[in-house]
């Protein structure tokens, strides 16, 4: 498995020519049985940034076999239409049905935070819309989680709204999903977009779906930027129980959480930034 960060919130000092922006997009190359499968997980806030960074990184996005949307927020879906236009070929777009709903975040005021395009535009594009609540198998050993069970008592979803039947109601983010990869001679790798469902809930689901007792690596945004010290500690405690070998936070994880991860996991922790590459 080879994962390249096409865009993330943080500028990479080793790749100054790349543009960083609030959002996330991973290009993931998977090799099995002599075959290569190329996945694009999330499309960042805009197509221009993702396409320009990909070009500078020597990545041809026209080789993408499938696009996976971790959830329906703009910073993960904003580049979708432009990227599909660039790819031209018919490409499956795997998402939860609610990822395409009108979504909002409640801060000082109500702010739209969902997709920036019309569903009808997506339906007319080269994307083959694949909407599922449950899991999707990409190739053997690679799963899109589908809805993630909420079992962890300290992982709550707050502050989001969604439009349902003309009414604005609390959004518990059932569309949040992750990618689970079984890497040969390594084990389970969990790749998240924001882990709105909770990082521990996500990891536990990954272990259950892949029958894995341990976890080799967890990569992605962990949505702990505004989390309490208690929640961060509880997350770390649970991760340590898995015997995790590598933890690679980025995007919405938050400075406090990343610092704590670094303190506890030491060399096992590596913050990812725009342009970074991970190979297992």
Q: Summarize the amount of helix as a percent range.
A: 10-25%
Q: How many H/I helical runs?
A: 7
Mean pLDDT over all positions: 97
Beta-strand content: 25-35%
Name of the CATH architecture: 4-Layer Sandwich
| Ends distance | 5 Å
| Total tally of structural domains | 1
Overview of the structural elements:
Strands 8-5-4-3-2-1-17 form a 7-stranded mixed beta sheet. It has a single domain, classed as Metallo-beta-lactamase, Chain A (4-Layer Sandwich). It has 7 helices and 17 strands. Helix content is 23%, strand content 29%.
Which secondary structure elements does this structure contain, and how are they paired or packed?
Layout: E1 2-7, E2 25-32, E3 35-41, H1 47-56, E4 66-68, H2 74-77, H3 80-87, E5 91-95, E6 103-106, E7 110-112, H4 119-124, E8 127-131, E9 136-139, E10 142-144, E11 160-164, E12 167-170, E13 179-183, E14 187-192, H5 199-210, E15 217-221, H6 229-241, E16 246-250, H7 255-265, E17 277-279
Parallel strand pairs: 3-4, 4-5, 5-8, 14-15, 15-16
Antiparallel strand pairs: 1-2, 1-17, 2-3, 6-7, 6-11, 9-10, 10-13, 11-12, 13-14
Helix pairs in contact: 1-3, 6-7
Tags for this model:
single chain; 280 residues; alpha/beta; Metallo-beta-lactamase, Chain A; seven-stranded mixed sheet; six-stranded mixed sheet; 23% helix; globular
